[in-house]
Design brief:
Elements lengths: L1 H22 L5 H24 L5 H24 L5 H26 L7 H28 L9 H22 L7 H20 L7 H23 L2 H25 L3 H6 L10 H4 L7 H10 L2 E6 L1 H6 L2 H13 L3 E6 L9 H8 L7 E3 H4 L8 E5 L8 H4 L19 E5 L19 E5 L2 H14 L1
Parallel strand pairs: 1-2, 1-4, 2-3, 4-5, 5-6
Helix pairs in contact: 1-2, 1-9, 4-5, 4-7, 4-8, 5-7, 5-8, 6-7, 8-9, 12-18, 14-18
């Protein structure tokens, strides 16, 4: 039985690697997800077989079965009912459960350790898994509430100072315990560290702005992976160790890549710092040209090649299906159409890709920013829906701007730009968008969903 379980864990580990490899490509992401999920199912089965091979009390076995089937049914139901616009919230919620699980494992194992005989290495691993799991759990819950609009950013001094104090305690207290300064039972100390870490997780995420949630979600996922790896070392479970390391490493790499895409350091993101502009109102600085729905429809019908740049506003308006209809309509008229995705568009990594996939838009139409930035002049029109800072030319021309140096989609280099906005409010950076005042740019005010529907209706008549 032991050999069978070990082979199963090896196959599961290879499945995780294969799944990650396939998920690096949008076209094969679905297959990669299926491969990784199959590996996880195999790992759970192997763990269950290993448990059965030992002496397991009947009540424990019942609890294990209920947890497996209950979690499976609940997860399937939640995943089936969630709207794609709410996918970031669901990811945060699932990540919270993973972190909470790692924390509970640490607490339970700590309470069962023989204080006098247990090795310090085991205790250290337990504490590390417990601390990182607790931070990921409450941090993910706060991220979920922010994404759902239930919690606002809080950069008050008491929050920032409180987070620093709890972080210091979380680092210093374990050191003091292992050198003998804190003479309490290990279980009691573990409970205290769990409480401190849960509190730090809350204060850690509270000051971070909503626009930085993609980075935060990726980082919290990484922390959960690290917590899982620590738990795997405690149990000697190779699948937990491998899976945790893969998730942790991938999360860290993705976090750093997104910070690079915003031209901001991870430290500034986590500190919730983003220098605001002190410029005057946009209307006083720029000559804004508006455009009518009929004009847009007419220009689209005569275009040869256009692109759509989606942003979080597209998700808020829930207009992704209309983008799919617009794509079909324009293709029938012989118009080539691309969707250009900025790395940090939306509220989680790949948010825009997921939204467009829900609308059955083929991945062949999705273009990364770097693929097309040098070919912008070939587009007859760029239609920007709900994006702001990621298309701001000030990132290239104004060193004093908060967004300067941030890689952008160079929409301003196309022949014509149309921006769909509800109002003239600035983006997260709080600066005016120089694109709006350019000669080749026009603005269409209103709800993106309503506007797209009317454009589609008029295109059908042309």
């Amino acid at each position: 039985m032991t050999i069978l379980v070990e082979v199963g864990y090896l196959v599961a580990t290879v499945s995780f690697l294969g799944g990650l490899k396939f998920m690096s490509s949008p076209k094969r992401a679905k297959l990669g997800n299926a491969i990784a999920a199959s590996g996880m199912i195999l790992a759970v089965i192997c763990t269950f077989l290993m448990v059965l091979s030992g002496t397991v009390p009947t009540p424990n076995l019942i609890v294990l079965l209920v947890a497996i089937f209950g979690g499976t049914l609940l997860g399937q139901r939640m995943a089936a009912k969630v709207e794609m616009t709410a996918m970031p919230q669901l990811v945060s919620l699932f990540n919270a459960t993973g972190g909470g699980c790692a924390m509970l494992l640490g607490v339970i194992e700590a309470s069962q350790l023989a204080t006098d005989t247990s090795l310090s290495g085991t205790k250290i691993l337990l504490l590390l898994g417990l601390i990182t799991g607790a931070i990921a759990a409450t941090g993910s819950v706060v991220a979920y509430r922010k994404l759902a609009g239930k919690t606002n950013d809080n950069r008050k001094a008491i929050v920032v100072v409180g987070a620093r104090i709890l972080l210091s305690l979380t680092v210093l207290l374990p050191t003091a315990y292992f050198v003998g300064i804190i003479p309490v039972p290990f279980a009691v100390f573990a409970y205290a560290m769990a409480v401190l870490s849960l509190g730090y997780g809350i204060l850690f995420v509270l000051p971070i702005g909503g626009a930085d949630m993609p980075v935060v979600i990726s980082l919290l996922n990484s922390i959960t992976g690290i917590a899982t790896a620590f738990a795997g070392f405690v149990y000697g479970n190779k699948a937990m160790i491998a899976g945790g390391i893969f998730v942790g490493a991938a999360g860290i790499l993705l976090t750093l890549l997104m910070c690079k895409a915003m031209n901001r350091s991870l430290v500034k993101v986590l500190a919730g710092k983003f220098k605001k502009s002190s410029g005057t109102e946009v209307e006083e600085e720029q000559h804004i040209k508006s455009i009518s729905l009929s004009e847009i429809a007419m220009q689209l019908s005569f275009a040869h090649k256009i692109a759509i740049v989606p942003g979080y506003g597209l998700a808020v308006a829930q207009a992704q299906h209309l983008c799919g209809q617009l794509l079909q309509l324009l293709e029938a008229k012989g118009v080539a159409i691309d969707f250009i995705i900025h790395p940090v568009a939306g509220r989680m990594p790949g948010h825009m890709n997921v939204l467009l996939a829900e609308a059955n838009i083929d991945y062949g139409h999705l273009k990364e920013m770097n693929e097309v930035n040098e070919q912008m002049s070939h587009y007859d029109m760029i239609l920007i829906i709900g994006a702001n800072d990621v298309v701001n030319p000030a990132a290239e021309t104004k060193p004093e701007s908060p967004v300067y140096g941030m890689p952008i989609i160079k929409a301003h280099e196309s022949k014509q730009v149309v921006v769909m906005k509800r109002s003239m409010s600035p983006g997260y950076a709080g600066v005016s968008n120089d694109l709006f005042g350019m000669d080749n740019c026009s603005l269409l005010f209103g709800d993106a969903k309503d506007s797209l529907q009317e454009i589609i209706n008029q295109l059908k008549l042309i």
